[in-house]
Amino acid sequence: MGSSWIVDASQTFDLDLNLDSFRLQAPKDVPRGVQINFMGVENKASVKDETSDLKAELERMKEENRRLTETLSAVYENYITLQSRLGDVTSMTSEKDTMLAMLSSRKRKAENNREVKSDVVDIDGSINCNFNNNNINVESSSSEDSCKKIKEDPKTMVSRVHVRTEPSDTSLVVKDGYQWRKYGQKVTRDNPCPRAYFRCSYAPACPVKKKVQRSAEDPSVLVATYEGEHNHPNCTKSETRAASNKGASPVLISSSSASPTKTVTLDLTRPNSSQVAVVGAHHREIDSPEFQRHLVEQMASSLTRDPGFTSALAAAISGRIMRY
DNA sequence: CGAGTTTGACCTGCGC
DNA sequence: GCGCAGGTCAAACTCG
């Protein structure tokens, strides 16, 4: 069984670390007692003031600590929720693989009729993370599909991906991280939109082919049909990311049937915002500590790339330094 | 100049 | 055998 699917995922991380409370700490807020100590003056009254100020400060720090703990637990809760949703997605994939294996004996025409319009992916520039909806469209069939050459090779897998594009986008390009070379275009009988034929050009010996055609029912939907398996790793992570930054690339999760491990490429990139990208992880390792550590590292690096976050952090740190 | 795209011609399989 | 349709080839063309 082989499949390749694209996920429309919409989930925003809202990290409110209450950094404003740090930023608002101006030097004038420094307790009087502390200022007096800086001046080298000591008396009983000042010691009393200092004690009460320190107590107040301690209370304030406690409150701040409590708020931060709450925020942290909220973030952790979001992370757990997302992780469980990711688990749902991967289990859905295996379920669909099983279902599609049973359906694979159907004739091609019957399969074409079975295509569901609603199971499409939105590519509108912003990547939304919604693992609960059914925007994952997987159509996969074994070698009995369409082509006789495929029939001769039982290991050749066919999978179909539906991708929604901008109405203004007339190109037949589905960005999936691989490098494709177009070798033909044909107008088919049942669809006025031409079908484009692509070969994987990353490796000369790579047998994978891709057909891309607009849906006859909904021209804004591109139907990409993949045949075969790549005999090389996903060529360029950077390319995928670059494409994502342009807002034209879907979140892609692809799997290869012959291989016991599945390659999961999750790119939750959103333009001008924090990014979370997990590339090249095996979906069976999602629960592993290494994967989770990698996820946290990715989140951390995403936050550090966010100028807003770094400036807020810098303001908080400089505020602290000014105070002490 | 090389790599990628376009496009008409050609090949092959299938149904009648 | 013939016609049709899908798939592929390759020369011409485009673009960086």
From TrEMBL:
BP-aspect Gene Ontology terms: response to other organism
Keywords assigned by UniProt, alphabetized: Coiled coil, DNA-binding, Nucleus, Transcription, Transcription regulation
Protein name: WRKY transcription factor 18
Principal cellular location given in the protein's record: nucleus
Similarity field: Belongs to the WRKY group II-a family.
Keyword Glycoprotein: no
Location(s), subcellular: Nucleus
Coiled-coil parts of chain: 44-78
Highest taxon, organism lineage: Eukaryota
Organism: Acorus calamus
SMART domains xref list: WRKY
Presence of keyword Cell membrane: no
Domain WRKY: 169-233
Amino acid composition bias (Polar residues), ranges on this chain: 233-247
